[in-house]
Amino acid sequence: MIKDNKNKNKDHKSIIQEHITKNAPKRKAFNNFMTVLLFVFVIIAIIPLCSILIEVFKNGVGALSFDFLFKPPGSLGSGDGGIGPAIQGTLLVVGFATLIGAPVGVLAGVFLSEYSSSSRLFAYFLRLFNDVLTGIPSIVIGIAGYITIVLTLGSFSILAGAFVLSIIMIPIIARVSEETLKLVPNTLREAAYGLGLPKWKVVWHIVIMGSKSGITTGIVLAISRIAGETAPLIMTILGTSLFFSAFNSPVDALPLRIWRLASQPYPAAHEQGWGAALLLILLVLSLSIALRMFAQKRSITFKSVT
Amino acid sequence: MPLKDSKNTHAELVQKLALQSRKSIFGDNFFKALVIGASLYTLLMVALVFFALAEGSIPIFLKEGINFVIGTDWNAVEGRESFGALPYIIGTLVSSAIAMAIAVPISVGIAIFITEMIPKKLGTVLSFIVELLAAVPSIIYGLWALFVFRFWIRDYIEDPLHNTLGDFSLFARAPFGLDVFTAGIVLAIMIIPIISAVSREVIKAIPHSQKEAAYALGATRWEMVRTAILPSAKTGLMGASFLGLGRAIGETMLVTLIIGNAIGLAAIPTSLFSQSQTLSSIIANEFNEASNDLHLSALIGLGLVLFVITIFINVVAIYIISKVSKSYSNLRE
Questions:
Q1: What CATH topology corresponds to B64-332?
Q2: In CATH, what class is A66-305?
Q3: Across the interface, which of A104, A122, A230 has its CB nearest the CB of B253?
Q4: How far apart are CA B24 and CA A197, in angstroms?
Q5: Residue A8: is its pLDDT beyond 60?
Q6: Do B189 and A204 touch (CB under 8 A)?
């Protein structure tokens, strides 16, 4: 602009003004274009979600029946029977995994939030290893479970499955617990110390009990993650068409059953697969929607405390 | 002390108190031991995973040596065993690269749109919907991709590409719907919520003064994003992308169902529409059918390779993100 000879006699201000007014429509148009483009990106991300929900409901709802929910699978490809053992297996494996994973995860979170000031280095490594553990692919953890538990006990078992899933839970629960425990205002801790409570009572009665809802959120979040895990279960619980009978025999699980059904060449099996997927997605999505509402409420109450 | 103790002498009272405090010291130590024990258990799990894999893959590394990582042959037949992981490493990298090429721009775009372009309340709702995608189990993505999405891809994207650009080797193979291209796209859908969630945090952390400065200079909203947000968020966005990459590389079930499960040399993709195989998918496919100990050890070895790759990527991601959050807190101070 300034190089332009015609502009020589004009003053600086008007040159800038001209520049702005001349380019304004172009810049505005580009701004609008980018806004629309980014909006399209959001739509692109939402379409698969809608399609998955629609297809799972459309194809899965026909499979649901009493037999489907409570009976063991019938003969291959017949479409008879149901996924009773898979539902039972998922509940059992996830339940046992939570029994191991929840206390360990919460206590690790307590360490990071309440005890880490005396051993910074250890806390640093714990956080790092937690993050690393979150990033390890679940199938790799499954292999480790196969080597340590299945090979030692000599059989596929619910214990191996629960152990592997608990490893996946721990870092999630520890992270959320740490975050929520840190939200407890320090004045509450000081007041408790002022009344002469020993540290462990302060931590237990004031800090942990005071953030029960936050800790629950972490545990439920972890449960919703592991309920859909398939890969690590292949090498730990194997899958079966029988109901749970003993701690040293294979069990079934919903995601594993979906995989087996989808891999069969029979349309009847595919329909059952969709039915099982419908149950699984209902379980997982209701957990995460409940979580979200819970979490929103919680952040408000904490804000009013501090 | 309760009233009924008033009969006791002072000394007894003090003794009682001392006893109680000793009890609470015991309680303190016990609780601390519990908490530290849980922390050690967590550390132990990482070590356990590593050593279990390392120990399990000793036989295959003894037999194949470096060939296990650079070999292309995969044969589990008794007497003619030969195990090379290279095709699966390439398959993993190619499918993840396709996923990243699609997911990164879209996720960053979504993050910008949600944090900067729309009212906060609407943003919360939208981000909730996008994050629901992350809650869907990967086996269900696999089911949907196998029975629904692959036909969309084949009919509306792959066939037209093949018919018009089939002379290029990139699009040379007759599309089938079950190939490295479809796997890459579905992986992208899976990691979009992860990358966009972290990106949103990164963008939110940028000091308001920077944005306001850009607006004060007369920037449009997009110009503000380009000049004030993207340059300072660059590193953080890279960290977010690495996190997504780690997820894509380790993803198993969905890939197993839709990548076509080629074996050995055939698993090296020659075009976008080739069948392929990833490290995780071949483990899932063959683990329960492993014919002998060497085959099993080879699969465990693949797990070790996968472990090393993902640890590397995740540590890079963690490093980048921690550095970024530090520099932001410096800026604020």
A1: MetI-like fold (1.10.3720)
A2: mainly alpha
A3: A230
A4: 9
A5: no
A6: no
What is the distance between the alpha carbons of residues B252 and A179, in angstroms, rounded to a whole number?
A: 30
CA distance, residue B124 to nearest chain A CA (Å): 11
Residue type present at position A137: P
- Asked if the Cβ–Cβ distance from B147 to A55 is below 8 Å, we say yes
Among A73-82, A224-233, B55-64, the minimum mean pLDDT is found in A73-82
- Is the pTM higher than 0.95? The answer reads no
User: Please, is A188 exposed, middle or buried when counting C-beta atoms within 10 Å of its C-beta (0-12, 13-18, 19+)?
Assistant: middle
Q: How confident is residue B175, by pLDDT bands cut at 50, 70 and 90?
A: confident
Which value, in Å, is the radius of gyration of the alpha carbons in chain A?
Answer: 28
Domain boundaries, chain B: 3-56, 64-332
**What pLDDT is recorded for position B134?**
86
ipTM here: 0.88
Start-to-end CA distance of chain A, whole Å, equals: 56
Contacts with B32 from chain A: Cβ below 8 Å: 115, 200
Q: What is the pLDDT of residues B259-296, one digit of tens each?
A: 988 888 889 998 889 999 999 999 999 998 887 889 99
Average confidence (pLDDT) over B134-156: 92
A147 vs B55: CB contact, 8 Å cut-off?
yes
Q: Which two tokens mark A54? A: 């629609």
Helices (H) and strands (E) in chain A, counts: 14, 0
Q: How confident is the model at residue B19 (pLDDT cuts 50, 70, 90)?
A: low
With CA atoms as reference, the chain B residue closest to A254 would be: B139
Q: Which of B21, B48, B139 sits opposite A259 (nearest CB)?
A: B139
Dump pLDDT digits (tens) for A208-253.
988 888 899 899 999 999 999 999 999 999 888 889 988 889 999 9
Q: Nearest CA to B176 among B278, B286, B269, B284?
A: B269
Spatial distance between the Cα atoms of B44 and A2, rounded to a whole number of angstroms = 68
The verdict on B53 touching A (C-beta cutoff 8 Å) is yes
- Chain A CB contacts of B41 below 8 Å: 104, 108, 170
- Pairwise CA distance, residues B190 & B135, whole Å: 10
Contacts of B225 in chain A (CB under 8 A): 34
**DSSP secondary structure letters along B245-278:** HHHHHH--HHHHHHS----GGGGS-SSTT-----
Position B5 pLDDT exceeds 60? no
Which residues of chain B neighbour A279 with C-beta distances below 8 Å? none
C-alpha to C-alpha distances, A16 to A5, A20, A23, B220, nearest whole angstrom:
15, 6, 11, 16
In angstroms, rounded to a whole number, what is the distance separating the alpha carbons of residues A205 and A107?
14
